Amino acid sequence: MAVDSLALVQGTVNVLILKALTQGPMHGYGISKWIHDESTGALAVEDAALYQALHRLERKGLIESEWGVSDANRKAKFYTLTREGRKYLQAEVAALRRYMDALFKILQPA
Questions:
Q1: Residue pair 29/38 in contact by the 8 Å Cβ criterion
Q2: Fewest Cβ atoms nearer than 10 Å: which of 21, 45, 63, 107?
Q3: This prediction's pTM
Q4: Computed from CA positions of residues 75, 35, 90, 102, in that sequence, does the dihedral angle turn out positive or negative?
C-alpha cells in the first residue's frame, strides 16, 4: 500500500510546529502548509493532531496566540513562539539528533 506522506514519530509534531514558528507568527493552516512545503510533501500533520498539539504547547507556555485576520481575509488564531518555546525547541532538536544518530548507526549495513 502506497503512503502519500510519512507517519510522524510521536513527539515530532511539537518540534515541527515550534520550528515553523521560528519563521514568525502563523495560523494553523500556515503551520501545516509550512511543514508540508519544507518537507517537499513528505510530511503532513492531520488537522486534529495539529490543533491538539497547538493547545498543548500553549498550555505549557511554549507558544502564545492572538486573533487576527488571515491572507484570505478570515478571522484566524495566530501563534507565536515564546522564549521558553525557543529553549524547548533547541533541547528537543538536540535530543532528536542524538536519537537519529543512534538509530542510523544501528541501521547501517554490517
A1: no
A2: 107
A3: 0.87
A4: positive
Give whole-number Cα distances, 73 to 20, 34, 43, 68, 69, in Å.
22, 19, 27, 9, 6
* Residue 11 Ramachandran class (φ > 0 left, ψ -120 to 50 alpha, else beta): left
C-alpha–C-alpha distance, residues 4 and 26, integer Å: 25
Closest CA to 61 of 27, 88, 91, 28: 88
3 within a domain of the structure (yes/no): no
The whole domain housing 65 covers 12-107
| CATH number for 43 | 1.10.10.10
Strands 75-81 and 26-27: antiparallel
**Overall domain count for the chain:** 1
First and final CA of the chain: distance in angstroms? 29
Angle between the 28-38 and 47-59 helix axes, to the nearest 10 degrees?
110
**pLDDT digit string (tens) for 3-52?**
445 556 667 999 999 999 999 999 999 999 999 999 999 998 999 999 99
* 5 is a domain residue: no
